Model the fold of this input.
Amino acid sequence: MQRLAPTSNWPVFQREHLKTLERQLQARSPVPLMQSAGLAAAQLALAIAPHAQRIWVAAGPGNNGGDGLEAAMHLHLAGKTVRVSLLIDRDKQAADAQAALARALQAGLTVQTELPRDWIASMGPQDLCIDALLGLGASRPLSPDIQAWVDAINQSPAKVLALDLPTGLDAESGQLLGTDAQAPTRAVLADHTLTFVAAKPGLFMGHGRDVCGDIWLESLDAATREPIQLQPQAWLNAPGEQHHKTHASHKGSHGDVAVIGGEAMALHGMGMSGAAVLAATAALHAGAGRVMLSLLGESAVSIPPDLMQSTWTQLDLEQLHVVCGCGGGQAVRAVLTDVLARSAQLVLDADGLNAVAQNEAWAQALRQRGDHQPTVITPHPLEAARLLKTDTRQIQNQRLQSAQNLADQFHCVVVLKGSGTVIAAPGQTPRINTTGNGKLAIGGTGDVLAGLIGARMAQGLNAFEAACTAVHQHGQVADAWPKDQALTASRLAQALC
Done:
């Protein structure tokens, strides 16, 4: 059993591949996987709640419920006071879960089908609820009965251990089940999640970041003679190597970044030059040798003296690592043809992406850059939806596939921002980023990320590794931010190194 920390470089599997893994593991295992899963759950329960006086196991109708029954049996045999509630008639259980129920009853456990409200009300912070209601296969909104049990778990003061994933969470996307319904599901809020066989993408994306707590993995392969080889659908994004400046170097040794953006206030009554300044400041603090700022209009924002200023027509784009689109508004359209055709390397963000989504000639120019002109695009879900001609619900429900579709369609590296940012590229296994938090949900932090990616490309990383390294660092700085200080985009940019 291992804890999946934010720095874990761990493979991630989607639902159908996990089912294949389970079948292969079961074929090699001398005991049912459910028994191994239940034992692992009991061991973790004893570790996280060693002084629990009461343990409530809420078991559902499928294999997840069977895992809970096996765990309850081991906890009972260990001398714990365990109450098991089974949310289904016994004769309607799946075959493996029925076998687990029989083992639990034989061990002397009492299994009820009612919600034990008095028992729950008597639980304290040292006690434990085990969520074994629904697992990997859940894809529909919760029934009223299951939702009532989820609410009871959340209202208890006891610690919560979810088996495989918290009930109410989609294992594929990290969205809440029934998000598009009038009354979306409320998920179990777990302190710990013990996931089985392999990591699932939904644990690290969307609401998964909020409801899973500490994530543990039990691969259930201890009884197999050799590990099973199967290509994962993604990897968790591990930290990359930090750039260090050698003594025998000069400003030209660390790359030149040009930031083009910042629409003037006079055009639409809202000046956006600050976005471009943020991107340039991030590139500067991240260690780029020289940073040139090319604003697309008059600016009321003070420009740091460390930044060089230039009109975009004076820039030698063929020699530069260009960051374009930050705060560009409509003004970016005047430069986009040249930027797409001439930039040696390019990070395209914000209004640059919106312009591409509305103009097929620019979309084709982006595709034609290919490998000879490395490119990173950094859409948030709405910008991704515009590029793929769909809606944000579809993007969020299929984040891995959406990022890969963008990468394949535009022949570039894609950073699909959000909770569990996805980095994808043609021919690469996508990565899911596990750093960052809600403090980044403010204006300007995306501009900082674009500038940081530009700096890492300028320092010699290829586009994919530059994106992976920058996204991890961007979130890591937010994770380390002092609790008594407000995080702003300008402070974030200045904290980079």
